[in-house]
Design a protein that fits this description.
Layout lengths: L6 H11 L20 E6 L3 H13 L3 E7 L3 H10 L6 E3 L2 H7 L4 E4 L6 H10 L3 E4 L7 H18 L3 E3 L7 H11 L6 E9 L9 H4 L2 H5 L1 H10 L7 E7 L12 E7 L5 E7 L8 E8 L2 E4 L4 E4 L5 E2 L12 H13 L10 H18 E2 L4 E2 L3 E3 L10
Helix pairs in contact: 2-11, 5-6, 6-12, 10-12
Bound molecules: nicotinamide-adenine-dinucleotide.
Length: 385
């Protein structure tokens, strides 16, 4: 399969896939018999994997895990035991797994600074790849993975899917469809936040780049989606760490504003150490005719014509995960004729937005929190289309 990759094509493919709401049923393609399962290799068996494995087991009957791999033997053994239904072989080196197993797709659930390091060889070996968000922690690694994912799709028809699960969340799909169909008129402002009572301040930022890069990609992804997958032109940000003052540990409080070329602003707060009452996810898109609260699944019209657009998420922040896993397997089973909703282009934009924000809140030379304006061009990415 040789498919040419353009921004328009990605957006079109995402829009087509966005109509999928019943993602778990097995449409069966030529060459993939109905009774045959999609064979998966699983790399990285840490914290996030335990939840993903449970969802895969419960919600995706078409998947079979044939190999599990982690650098830490106990984690690999634990994953093997979890998958006793599928009786996978265990590996400490994923390249050995590729030599021994017949695999259709690979799950890459490693730490952020290991995403490109693992996902690139997966794509180069000719497998479809699901990797957790964000793409990686810095621009060169994101660029390298972007180039590899585009090449894999263009030359081998193998796709890269990123785990920003809201792109498969039924309420978000419905809200976004309405926004893109003009429910709000022109989008004018977006507000977001992720607010926590827990304490991330002791988390070193050397591998994940800081909590903003680790987490905010979910929300930069949603707002870039509202803007039809166009990247912002600049951002400004301020942050602090209430305990250890240096950015070598994660920021505990930050405020970031992104701006698009048409002037639209996205204001985002990422806060920790709050009273539990304030644990919340905030995602609202404002426009000429009203507002859509994506977390509540509601439209608030200026004309008082309010309406429900879908089930509210509240604090069910993992919604969309079973659907994204089911879609990964379904896409493989149906011969990968489309890119996933959350693909290399959407993943690249949301990841680079997070890196851009961190650059704007931190003066890397002085290793202090210091605000500045950072433009998309300042990222120096080699992968802009
Ligand atoms: N989508 C979500 O809601 C969500 C939630 C939590 C975490 N995450 C993401 O999930 C990813 C993993 O986070 P985590 O908390 O599970 O990390 P973790 O450190 O608990 O687990 C990562 C595992 O990957 C293994 N690993 C690293 N390199 C490897 C290699 N070359 N071969 C085999 N195994 C390797 C490590 O040994 C480790 O066990 C991160 O990208 C994180 O941002 C996503």
């Amino acid at each position: 399969m040789a498919l040419k990759l353009t921004r328009r094509q990605f957006v079109r493919s995402s829009a087509a896939a966005a109509t999928i709401t019943a993602l778990s049923s097995g449409g069966v393609a030529r060459g993939f018999p109905a009774n045959e399962k999609v064979q998966l290799g699983w790399i990285g068996c840490g914290g996030r994997s335990s939840g993903l494995m449970q969802h895969m087991m419960n919600s995706v009957p078409d998947a079979k895990v044939v190999g599990v791999c982690d650098l830490i033997p106990e984690r690999m053994e634990k994953a093997k035991a979890f998958w006793k239904r599928d009786n996978p072989n265990g590996y400490l080196d994923f390249r050995k797994m590729f030599e021994k197993e017949k695999i259709d797709g690979v799950m890459c659930i490693t730490q952020i600074c290991k995403h490109a390091e693992v996902a690139i060889p997966v794509l180069e070996a000719g497998y479809h790849c699901f990797a957790e968000k964000p793409m990686d922690k810095d621009v060169p690694a994101c660029d390298a993975l972007t180039h590899a994912a585009r090449k894999a799709w263009k030359e081998k028809g193998k796709f890269y899917q990123i785990g920003t699960q809201r792109r498969c969340h039924p309420t978000y799909l419905k809200c976004m469809k309405e926004i893109h169909n003009g429910l709000l008129g022109k989008v004018t402002f977006m507000q977001g936040g992720w607010h926590w009572s827990s304490d991330p301040s002791e988390a070193p930022s050397d591998c994940d780049g800081g909590r903003f890069i680790e987490q905010a990609s979910h929300h930069t992804d949603v707002m870039a989606w509202a803007m039809k997958d166009i990247a912002p032109v600049r951002c400004v940000a301020m942050a602090s760490n209430q305990k250890d003052k240096t950015p070598s540990f994660s920021e505990t409080h930050s405020s970031t504003t992104f701006q698009w070329a048409d002037g639209t602003l996205f204001s985002y707060t990422h806060l920790w150490l709050l009273p539990g009452k304030y644990d919340a996810e905030v995602l609202t898109v404002f426009g000429e005719k009203g507002a859509v609260d994506l977390n509540a699944g509601k439209y608030w019209g200026r004309d008082e014509k309010n309406k429900d657009l879908g089930e509210a998420s509240g604090k069910a922040w993992d919604r969309g995960t079973p659907e994204e896993l089911a879609d990964f397997v379904l896409n493989i089973k149906t011969d990968a004729k489309r890119l996933p909703n959350a693909n290399v282009e959407t993943g690249r934009v949301c990841s680079l937005m997070c890196i851009m924000a961190r650059m704007a809140m931190v003066n890397a030379k002085k290793n202090v929190y210091e605000p500045s304006v950072v433009t998309w061009k300042d990222l120096g990415s080699t992968a802009d289309l």
